[in-house]
Specification:
The structure holds 2 protein chains of 2 kinds.
Chain A (H helix, E strand, L loop, with lengths): L1 E5 L15 E6 L2 E7 L7 E2 L2 E2 L1 H16 L1 H5 L7 E11 L8 E12 L2 E10 L2 E12 L2
Antiparallel strand pairs in A: 1-2, 2-3, 3-7, 4-5, 6-9, 7-8, 8-9
Chain B lengths: L6 E9 L2 E8 L18 H16 L3 E11 L10 E11 L2 E9 L4 E11 L1
Antiparallel strand pairs in B: 1-2, 2-4, 3-6, 4-5, 5-6
Classes of the chains: A alpha+beta, B mainly beta.
Chain lengths: ~140, ~120
């Protein structure tokens, strides 16, 4: 089991749009990530992380999960793109200072496209859930 | 996010309830420092945000997505290769919110299709 990996080792996104910080743990093809929402996050609107920020956190968490094998092989992170978002429901938009945790659950993979179920929450309750296809650039 | 830093509207029209915007993606937006360093690609979520921003302009109301039923990202938008784009938006309003169907395209291809629900807030 892998624990507490800096997300920058797994994905090529950087500030100001680095929207996940730490891969807390990974087991099998599933993982859990964490992200402290800073006061100067580019997706804040009226003190809340916007829907776009919440989606990007889930997308980067999925891409980080997909990047684990690259990391284990000692290679540089590859670009991961969102191919499709489905059934994305927003429960609550978190505020600056909260820690957003994303749970990434592997569904299947075909032709370089990985399908994940993802949900996110903070210490104050659930934020969002969706199904996402991630393309990895080879 | 201040969407004015991400894109600008060059022209707009409405035909049979379908809103059409000719827009330009700005290459000097701060987001490209990180997406990706030395290799600017327009983030999918920013294009989704642009659709919400344009819908807010049409309705003159602030919106928040309650759900994204489906969003297909079928092409790569970059401020270098594909800055000039057409955004088509069909809006069905209901009490307290609206349903949105949108597409981002140019004469060559389609880049993004979105079906979403939003609420006024």
């Amino acid at each position: 089991m892998l624990r507490d990996i800096d997300a920058r080792e797994l994905i090529p996104q950087r500030e100001p749009i680095l929207m996940t910080q730490t891969l807390y743990e990974a087991s099998g093809n599933d993982a859990r990530t964490g992200f402290v929402i800073s006061q100067d996050n580019m997706f804040l609107e009226d003190g809340h992380l916007s829907e776009m920020g919440v989606i990007e956190n889930m997308a980067q968490s999925a891409a980080a999960t997909a990047g684990i094998n690259t990391y284990i092989n000692g290679e540089k992170p590859v670009l991961g793109y969102i191919g499709e978002i489905k059934k994305c429901i927003f429960h609550r938009l978190p505020e600056a200072g909260e820690t957003l945790t994303a749970e990434v659950h592997y569904i299947s993979e075909a032709a370089g496209v990985v399908l994940y179920n993802i949900s996110s929450h903070t210490e104050n309750g659930p934020c969002a859930e969706c199904r996402m296809k991630v393309f990895l650039e080879k | 996010m201040n969407w004015n830093t991400y894109y600008e509207i060059k022209d707009s029209s409405i035909v049979d309830g379908l809103h059409s915007f000719e827009i330009r993606i700005k290459s000097d937006c701060d987001v490209y420092r990180g997406h990706f360093p030395g290799h600017p690609i327009s983030p999918g979520v920013c294009n989704i945000g642009m659709i919400r921003d344009l819908t807010e302009k049409v309705l003159q109301k602030k919106l928040r997505f309650s759900s994204i039923k489906q969003c297909r990202l079928t092409g790569m938008i970059t401020p270098i290769n594909t800055p000039e784009l057409t955004v088509l938006i069909y809006i069905a309003t209901s009490e307290g919110g609206c349903s949105i169907k949108a597409e981002i395209k140019d004469s060559e291809k389609s880049y993004l299709e979105l079906k979403a629900d939003a609420i006024y807030f």
